[in-house]
Amino acid sequence: MTVPTLLSTSGLKQDFVDRLLAEAANFTEVLSRPIPVVPALRGTTVAMMFFENSTRTRISFELAARRLSAEVVSFTAPTSSVTKGESLRDTAETLAHMGANALVVRHAAAGVPEAMSRWVNLPVINAGDGRHEHPTQALIDLFTVSRHIPKVSGLRLTIVGDIENSRVARSNIWLFSGLGAQVTLVAPGTLLPAAVDSWPVRTTGDLDSILPETDVLMLLRIQRERGAGARLPSMREFQMRFGIDERRAALLPDGALILHPGPMNRDIEISPAVARRDNVLVGEQVANGVAVRMAVLYMLLAGGDDD
Prior knowledge:
Blueprint: H1 14-31, E1 45-50, H2 56-67, E2 71-76, H3 88-97, E3 102-107, H4 112-119, E4 124-129, H5 135-146, E5 156-160, H6 167-178, E6 182-186, E7 202-204, H7 207-210, E8 216-219, H8 235-242, H9 246-249, E9 257-259, H10 272-275, H11 282-301
Parallel strand pairs: 1-2, 1-3, 3-4, 5-6, 5-8, 6-7, 8-9
């Protein structure tokens, strides 16, 4: 039997996505209980291999594993033998030999989780690799949207900001377009990838014109740590052209949702006043992260799914 992995949202089958959303809904109910723990993964060990800093992803994965009664091993690169020259392969194999049952991997280089899935015979979950993908965040975004807008086919998703450096954008593009949504990217030309013409999206630099045709607006921060700031004349100009203030928020149709994977930079991609609106679902995204990641861990470790 093929060991299941979650490395990308590209090619995910509808039945897998439907089942995952259903499992996430079940775990949302579990998390509302006075004791929000189930024994589904008792006796298993999940290794967190984070080579990049993280708050939401790492903590929600750790909470998800513990809510399923799994043991959690937290690997931290600066305090590991990686600083002594140990290779990524040896590190992954060491954790496998120690009895880890799954690896949750975040790395600054694209392709590292996929490589680890070849090196060890364990489920590997991509928790973000370079500019490549962040599949669990896209599944969280889909689950959050589905709680308000059940039908994804035909939904109009607009993604605004630093597309070039965003693994979240890529995973959402593949996931939502694969389920029949219409995806539009809005960004300065300097923050659009060279390959964007081959993606299942349309692009524009005119945010105001696309907002009235938007059901879900996804905002992305400028990733200055990846050099995005150097591609802009100024943050002030970006805010004026692509930031969501109250005037622009009023252009959205009634019932439109606003998402942000975090961390938010207020007064750049979103104004503080808009961030407080009821249709801004950032808090829901964070809360749903635990339930969705519980569903991912459960399906890969106990669900018998080999998709």
